[in-house]
Amino acid sequence: MFNLYIFVVVVSVIILISFKIKSFFSSFGKERIKLEFIPATQYFLNVRAAVEVPQWEAIAKTHYREAKGHCEICSKKARMECHELWNFDTNTFTQKLVGMVALCHECHGGIHYGHTIHSKDRADAARITKHLLKVNHWSVDTLQNKMTSAQEEAARLTRLARNGGSGYKLDLTYLNQKKYRLAELRKMTNDERSRCIKKESY
Ligand SMILES: [Zn+2]
79 C-alpha vs ligand 1 centroid, how far in Å? Predict the structure, then answer.
């Protein structure tokens, strides 16, 4: 009986270790924090700018509850920040909200790395950079290359928008879901651009 108990414990430990090793190596090469640079025509156009402060807080809390206090990228238990996920359609010139996630300050700052290095204090920016390199297993050179790519993509989207007109429409129909009813939002449309009031860049 005792031998069987030891056998079960040993096998469980081996399975656990192999799983950890596998997940450690499989995380290499994966871009868990994806840098995002907003096209210049879309600065200050986001959910936060389109709704009242209490409504934004209710929306954000919906996601903090779903994430149970853990960052949805790095899993760290931390004070949460709400990040909006966008899709840019260059045919219809639409910036569409396609999701929202609860993130720790460092992962969120990593996504908005352009904003981080220009606007945050040096200690905060250094902390975010360190976290970004660690979570993505990036070298400083890789970070530089990724920044260049993200900047080029934002410039491309900006150029297309300017050639096609004034910018992208802001589609916030994602917020018409039942789970956001607590926020007492008006019915959102596929063009909320004119309703946005300048608040923060993200
Ligand atoms: Zn995180």
Answer: 10
Query: How far does the centroid of ligand 1 lie from the alpha carbon of residue 83, in Å?
Result: 11
Residue 36 to residues 3, 149, 162, Cα–Cα distance (Å): 55, 10, 19
Helix (H) or strand (E) holding 94: strand 94-104
Per-residue pLDDT of the chain (202 residues; tens, 9 = 90+): 657 666 666 666 555 555 454 544 444 557 899 999 999 999 989 999 999 999 999 999 999 999 999 999 999 999 999 999 999 999 999 999 999 999 999 999 999 999 999 988 999 999 999 999 999 999 999 999 999 999 999 999 999 999 887 789 999 999 999 999 877 889 999 999 998 987 664 5
Please report whether residue 182 resides in a domain. yes
Q: How many angstroms separate the alpha carbon of residue 187 from the centre of ligand 1?
A: 31
Q: Is residue 14 part of a domain?
A: no
